[in-house]
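User: quick one, fold this
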Amino acid sequence: MSEATTQPAVRAVGAGYRKYAMGLLLLIYVMNFVDRQVVNILAEPIKRELGLLDWQVGAMSGLAFALFYTVLGLPIARAAERGHRPFIIAGALALWSLFTTLCGFAQTFTQLLLARIGVGVGEAGCTPPAHSLIVDYVPKEKRASALAFYAMGTPLGGLVGMALGGLIADAYGWRMAFIVCGLPGLLLAMVAGLTLIEPRIRASAEEIKARAQQMRDAKPFRDALATLRKKRTFWLVAFAAAIKAFIGYGQAPFAASFFYRNHLEEVTALGAMFGLAPGGFLGLSLGLMAGIGGAIGSFAGGAIADRYGSRDYRAYVSVPAIASVVVMPIFLFGVLSPSAVVALSSLFFGSVIGTLWYGPVYATAQTIVPPHMRATASAILLFIINLVGLGLGPLAVGALSDMFAIYFGMGEGEGVRWALIVASLTGFIAAGLFWLARKSIRDEMEG
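Assistant:
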C-alpha cells in the first residue's frame, strides 16, 4: 500500500469552524502557560516563606516540571498519531489544572516540587497533538502563520499568569494565586472535549478502511527517529530553539526577583501611582511588556516566514537567526540600566524580537517530515527544547545567581543581574545554528 493511502483519513473543516477551533486551541495554550508561568511572579514570596535558595527556585520552576513534561511528550505524541487528539488535549488540560490548584496547598518545598511535576505530566499532552491537529485544520501555505498564532499562547499565558498571579498574591497570598489560575482549566477541558473535531473521523467508508490499515501498519517510534536522524535541518533548528528556550525559560523565574532586588524603591513608587503594591505592579508590568511584545513577535515571525518562505525556504531559519543577534544588545541595555522604567521598556522590545522564532521553527518541524510523523516530530522537538530550555535554563540561571551572590560576594541583586546577562549571551550560539540550517533546509522539506 502506498504512503498516500496509508495516511490518516482527514477531511477539511469549514472556515468558520477553523476560526473557532484555532481560537479554542489558543485559549487552551494560554491556560497551559498561565499554569506553567504563574510560579515566576510568585518565586520571591515562595522563596521567602519556604526559605529557598535561587537554585531551588530554578528546580521548582523548571527542572521538576520539565523532566516529566519532556519524557511523557513522546509516548503521548505517538498516541496522537493514531488516537483522538481532542480527547487527549482535553484530558491533559484537566490534569495540569488540577495539579496547579494543588500547588496552592503545598506546605514544603518537596510538596510543591511534586505538584509541579504533576503540572508537567498534564501539560505534556497539549502541544504535540495540538500541532498535529492544526496542520490538519489549515492549508499548507498558512501553516507557519497558524502555528505562530497558536504559539501566541506562550506570551499571552505569561501575561495573564504574571499579572493575575501578582495581583492575587498581593491581595490573598501566593497560594490563592495557584488556586485561581488552576480551577478554570477544568471547565475549559469539558468544552474542548465536547466541541473540538477530530478530522480523521470525518471520513468516507473507504477512508475509514484505509485508516484502519494505516493503524495496523503504523511504523514504530524508531522508524520516525530514523527518518529525523537524516534531517540535518531538524537537529540544527531543534538545538538552536533549545538555546533560545534556555534563555527565555532561564530568565523568566528571576525577572521579578531582579526588580525586587535592584529596583524595589522605584517599583514601589511606580506601583503607588496606580494604587498597586510592588507585586501587583511587577506582575502587571512584566506580563504586559513580555506578553504583548511576545504575542506581536510570535505572530510577526510566522507572517514574515510565510511571506518570504513561499519564495525561499531559507527564510524559515534566516528570520530567527537574525533576530537572535539583534535581541541581545536590547536586553543587555535594559538589565544594565539604573532605571526600572528603561529596564521594563527594553523587555517589551526584547520580547517582540525574541519570539520571532516560534512560528518558523514549529513550521519547519512540521514540514520536514511525512504527514504521519508530524506529532512525533513535534514531540521530539519539544523534548529537546524543554529538556535543555525549561529543564536546565532556570536551574542554571539560579545556580549562577547563587554563585555570583555568595561565592563572588556580589550580593543577591548583582548576582541575579549577571546571571541574566550570562544566559543572554548564549544567543550567539543559537544564531549560528539557525544560520547553518540555511544550507540544507531547501533540500529536506517534505511538503
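User: anything notable?
Assistant: DSSP finds 21 helices and no strands in the chain.
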